[in-house]
Amino acid sequence: MPFPLGRRVACDIYWHGVSFHDNENIVSGQVNKFPGMIEMLRKINLSRAVRTMQELFPDEYNFYPRSWILPEEFQLFSTQIRLAKDSDSSLKPTFIVKPDGGSQGDGIYLIRDPSDLRAMAGAHSKHAVVQEYIQKPLLIDKLKFDIRLYVLIRSLEPLEIYIAKEGLSRFCTEPYQEPSQKNLNQVFMHLTNYSLNVHSGNFVHSDSTNTGSKRTFSSILYRLASKGVDIKKVWSDIISLVIKTVIALVPELKVYYQADIPPGKPGPTCFQILGFDILLMKNLKPVLLEVNANPSMRIEHEQEVSPGVFEYVPSPVDEEVKVGVIRDTLRLVDPGQRKPSHPMSLPLGNSSELQEDILEAGSPDKAEPGDGVLVENSLPSLCLKQVFPKYTKQFNYLRTVERIAALFMRFLGVKGTMRMGPTGFRTFIRNCKLSGSSLSMASVDILYIDITRRWAGMVSDSREAGMGLQAFVEAFFYLAQRRFKGLPLREQVVSLLGVCEAQLEGVEEKRSLCAKTPAERRTAQGTAHPLALPTLPQLSSPATVRKPPNYRLHQTLRPTLKGNVEN
Questions:
Q1: N or C: which end of the chain has fewer CB within 10 A?
Q2: CATH top-level class for 38-65+134-396?
Q3: According to the UniProt record, where is the region Disordered (predicted)?
């Protein structure tokens, strides 16, 4: 260990193995983990984050399988499936159950009916997510496979996302058949996890990157291209999925970030490499399976070199993909290499540019002017491609929940907390002038108590009392629906955001005016313009309304049959 008694001089980069809190008391430099990332990427929290976005943008977030959260939605799951089967007797769905904190395929299993959960001792009462199983995946050599893509979140503010131009394709080791009662437990047929299939007798370690049970994603794309598939469209859809997923995660990540590194307090900046697991359906539509906060970056595998003797030997396909990801992440975060220009000054992309300027899979041979580094002659060109803010124009309208999170953090009150107390909620209502004849402060108190109490029962690992961000978002949706009846939910929420932001801007102007001298105040008043409401963003790609207009207090946000991934 190079510094057994600790290091007195601060590091430029801290590379943690698990979480932001691996080392405490870091006040400068950069850490390769964000606070709260592990928590946000647990199965339940990821599902909730995506579900919130599905409420606002159902058409844009239809890449995530229909999900139910256990144990709280077990009865809802049972009822919905029973009604669906009653209306269509030919319906024979399959579901996959994933433990909330599981990894490497541990504890995952398939069921055909909610009653199967009851048959397993206590299974329906354990924290997990149950999802519709995608029964028609794209097959290569008659085998099911998934894609592991590496994504770098360079910063949250401003949001900066990079995607590796190369990924891994991880194959099952038994020919695929649609689920039946006979093959339901054949994990080597249905589950693509490397950690499971590597123990199969059919697993093939290969020195080639386009054969074997683990291959480069580009080798799959070349194969699809040879059959006439538009691989630029495939990449475009995958990039959209990644950006939209990160946008869904950012609001709560910002809350975690301000809790650990409050504004004005010395602290490091953060970045993180994530592992996106994506399945291609038979129709080439990408489906998000999960996101890993700590993807394996090993470039070797265990191999039996003689009977009973195992050694770690290099894995060419892992080396091909992962070395470039680590190398280029360090180049991007190296303060000596980073360009001084602000990333938001990059040209904004649009939908056609996303297709034309798409990643050249398997050909990461061009350094891009917006990649944010000075390319050295001694190093290969970047394998990481910036996708945000490059495509801000196309995706920025989706960042509605971030604006709600900004309101939430403004009224938290105590630095370092992640829960809003009743006083903070009342202050939010008053400062935004949301109370009146139709909404008394007594009703506001009841709203706070009701939603906070219900969410406290759903989020059992919370260490703080009060209203968390997800509960605040639900309350905000409720207030928006009361105030702007008859509009789609998204327009209701954006309209209420406009009201709140305009009111708070007026409060800030008054405070600024009060701080001036009498002479400065007269000058400012003489030149002041009437306060104008901020221009609402254009609502492109209008989506259908999913939330019923009679949404009531005590009514939980629930999944519906709309916005579901096609099987």
A1: N
A2: alpha beta
A3: 518-549
